[in-house]
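We were asked to recover a plausible sequence for a given structure. The inputs and outputs are reproduced exactly as logged, with field labels preserved.

PROBLEM: sequence recovery
POSITIONS: 346
GIVEN STRUCTURE:
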């Protein structure tokens, strides 16, 4: 049985040079870049459609990965798209699986419309990769791969499955976008000299609590560039709802540094933050002060692993604190690894 769902939106176009996918069905090795976007098409989460009155059709009988694919037909065709923050000059790779019943017109494919700061779609150029050049029309699954470079003025891209006016039935699944130029910091990085008050590697959930309860998700080191980590995923993924993780820490007044590695594909909403509430004898948590730092202020959010060094002054009278990764309702995936509290040397 096929599922049909509707969501609203608008349009645009674009993209650079392409690499043909191997015509064989087996998947090629996953690109070595930082993963920015992953759409399974099990649900309509992660993308929008144009025209506004078109129907998004997900097929739960024909798919390559997961539970469903997105399907475009001559009777129901549209543009599925999302916006992605870009870094000028960076190289990006997009991969997906495609299955076509017959030859597809050249106007249908993967498009990227580049926007400059303050400009509209295509104000910094565009690129287009026809599916007809990427895979044979033999009604079999083929993995496609395209690579492009963001123009020097491009700060945003409208990434599209430009399938409006498709002339044949096309199934698409397991769409991913990578930043091939993003550079991760080395694992186990420590910058601050001093006494380590707390160190958490996140290989287990001992000592951690969550809100909502029972929602802590851990990422394996071998899947995260050598780092076991906490994983926070937007609420549109029913298998891994966004949540807040916290723990209680004994701590005295003074100057400290919170150090940890983090990964986010782009700046999360402002409410996603690291938060510390301070309390002491006769004072509830928060009564002596609260420290907050937005994820977007940690540093670069480009899909690579980065290292955050955050100075924190613990107020007088403090004896304990609640340390929180307050990421409930985050709109992008966030990962946290190798968290340390270091009492800075005087």
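RECOVERED SEQUENCE:
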């Amino acid at each position: 049985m096929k599922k049909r769902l509707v969501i609203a939106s608008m349009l645009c176009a674009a993209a650079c040079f392409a690499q043909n996918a191997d015509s064989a069905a087996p998947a090629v090795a996953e690109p070595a870049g930082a993963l920015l976007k992953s759409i399974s098409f099990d649900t309509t989460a992660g993308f929008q459609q144009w025209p506004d009155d078109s129907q998004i059709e997900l097929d739960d009988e024909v798919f390559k990965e997961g539970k469903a694919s997105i399907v475009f037909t001559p009777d129901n065709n549209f543009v599925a798209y999302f916006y992605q923050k870009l870094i000028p000059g960076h190289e990006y790779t997009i991969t997906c699986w495609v299955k076509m019943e017959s030859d597809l017109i050249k106007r249908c494919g993967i498009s990227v419309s580049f926007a400059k700061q303050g400009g509209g779609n295509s104000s910094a150029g565009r690129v287009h990769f026809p599916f007809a050049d990427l895979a044979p029309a033999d009604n079999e699954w083929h993995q496609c791969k395209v690579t492009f470079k963001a123009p020097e003025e491009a700060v945003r891209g409208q990434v599209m499955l430009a399938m409006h006016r498709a002339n044949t039935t096309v199934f698409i699944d397991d769409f991913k976008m990578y930043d091939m130029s993003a550079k991760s910091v080395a694992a186990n990085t420590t910058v601050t000299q001093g006494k380590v008050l707390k160190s958490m590697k996140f290989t287990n959930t001992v000592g951690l609590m969550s809100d909502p309860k029972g929602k802590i998700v851990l990422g394996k080191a071998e899947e995260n560039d050598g780092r076991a980590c906490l994983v926070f995923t937007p609420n549109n993924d029913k298998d891994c709802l966004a949540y807040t993780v916290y723990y209680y820490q004994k701590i005295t007044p003074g100057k400290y540094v919170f150090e940890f590695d983090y990964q986010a594909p782009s700046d999360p909403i402002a409410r996603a933050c690291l938060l510390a509430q301070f309390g002491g004898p006769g004072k509830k948590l928060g009564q002596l002060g609260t420290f907050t730092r937005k994820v977007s202020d940690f540093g670069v959010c480009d899909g690579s692993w980065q290292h955050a060094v955050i100075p924190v002054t613990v107020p007088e009278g403090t004896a304990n604190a609640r340390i929180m990764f307050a990421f409930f309702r985050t709109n992008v995936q966030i990962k946290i690894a190798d968290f340390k509290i270091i009492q800075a040397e005087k």
